[in-house]
Amino acid sequence: MMDRFSALLVAACAFAPLAARAEPAVQIPPPAVDASAPAAGLETAVLAGGCFWGVQAVYQHVKGVTNAVSGYAGGAKKDAEYEIVSSGTTGHAESVQVTFDPKQISYGKILQIYFSVAHNPTELNYQGPDHGTQYRSEIFPQDAEQAKVARDYIAQLDAAHVFKQPIVTKTGTMRAAFYPAEGYHQDYAVNHPYQPYIVYNDAPKVENLKKLFPDVWREKPVVVSEAAKGE
Q: Nearest-CA neighbor of 28 among 219, 159, 147?
C-alpha cells in the first residue's frame, strides 16, 4: 500500500511545472436544453478534464453534489491503476464520478461548471501542464438523455464562439465503467491545500467556481470519506 508521501513523489500531476497556472475561467451561458429531473433519487455524471484532483475539488464545493470520486473511465478494469493509466496507453481518462441530486442541481448546470471553471474544453489530450490521452476532455454519458444534452450544449457553445478555439470534448463513450482511484487520490486538494500543484493549478478553479457560480457555491466541501459513511 502506497502512503500519501510516496504517492506524491510518483504522481504525474505533482511533477507539472510550478510556473503553470490554472486556465482562466470563461463565463458561459447555461444549456438551452437541459435534462429532465426524475421523480426521485440521485444521478451520476462522469467527467474527464485533466488531472482529477482539480475536477474533484470543484464539484466538492457544489450544492446538490452528494459525492465526487476521482477515478478512471474509458479503459479495462485490469488497467485501472494509477501507474498504468499514467502511461497513456490504457484508453482510460482520469475522471470524476459526480453524484448529485437533480432536484437541487441539474445535469446541465453540472456541465456548465465543467466547461466554465473545471477545465479548458479546447485542449486536446492535455490540460494545462499535464499531457497525454489520460488527461483528455471527455464526458461519459450515463444515458441517452445525458448524451443529447452534452452534444447539444457543445454545439450551442461552439455556435456562439464562447471559446477562441473549437471544443474538443468527446461525448461518444456511453455508460463507460468507472473505477475509483486509489485512496491517496481521494479528497487530494482538501487534504493537501498547500501542495504546490494544488496551489497553482487547482485552487484557482475552486475560487472561480465561487465567483462565477455563487448560487451553487458550498463553502464546506463534501468529501469522499464522509460521503462513504452515509452509504
A: 159
